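How a chain folds remains the central question behind the approach discussed here. The record that follows shows the chain in one-letter code together with its fold in token form:
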Amino acid sequence: MEFESNSWIWDGVYHYPHLFGGIMVTAALLGLSTSYFGGISIPSLPYFWPDLGIFHRRKCGKKHIRVYMDGCFDLMHYGHANALRQAKALGDELVVGVVSDEEIITNKGPPVLSMEERLVLVSGLKWVDQVIANAPYEITEQFMNSLFNEHKIDYIIHGDDPCLLPDGTDAYALAKKAGRYKQIKRTEGVSSTDIVGRILSSVKDTKVGEYHNNTSVSREPHNINNIQTEEIQSKSAHISQFLPTSRRIVQFSNDKGPGPNSQCCVH
């Protein structure tokens, strides 16, 4: 117990070696002068040093960092997992916002998986400590204040790919302005849209293969090409519903965003 009560002394020796040595020399000189002249009483060192307040260090642990990252997490793949892994490495606890279906439709296009399905996928990852459902696509001032005050978030995380709103502005502009934004590296070569494209391409190849197997050799080649072209165009109508990234077409439309009833088509 005596060792624990005097642990501050050893803290002082470790953190202030020169000051500690000076005080020891001064104490030794005072001890010699007291024994020589007599009549002078000084408090013993263990009681004297605490009054100085020199070696008392504020004992506080490392600040617990909570970080926030949001996303659609539609058709979750290893790119999503890698992003969450990087985000967790920037703090102690990772809070993940799953963007609502309505926000995804407004800003990107219809999601394949519902909110409930996406919540289950995100919640099951080992890097995720807490999930916020129906998060907004844009970091608004109101939502940012809620993150900082209610959820005790220290930093907002996003990948190094731009995330733009329909009007072309940065969805994370306020977080960057507040100095509470950190960036991670986006995983190249994979995206939910790419996965959707692979599925549609696989369906198309399967249909073409079935057609060749069931078609008589006597059919004229140009008729076969016409049927294949019609099938590809039919599939293209579905592909056009998915925007390739968050880089909206507004970048190429003189900063004019789409209207509420506008539809995107690829010809």
Q: What stands out?
A: The chain has three domains: 2-52, 66-184, 192-244. Residues 35 and 41 are 10 Å apart (CA to CA).
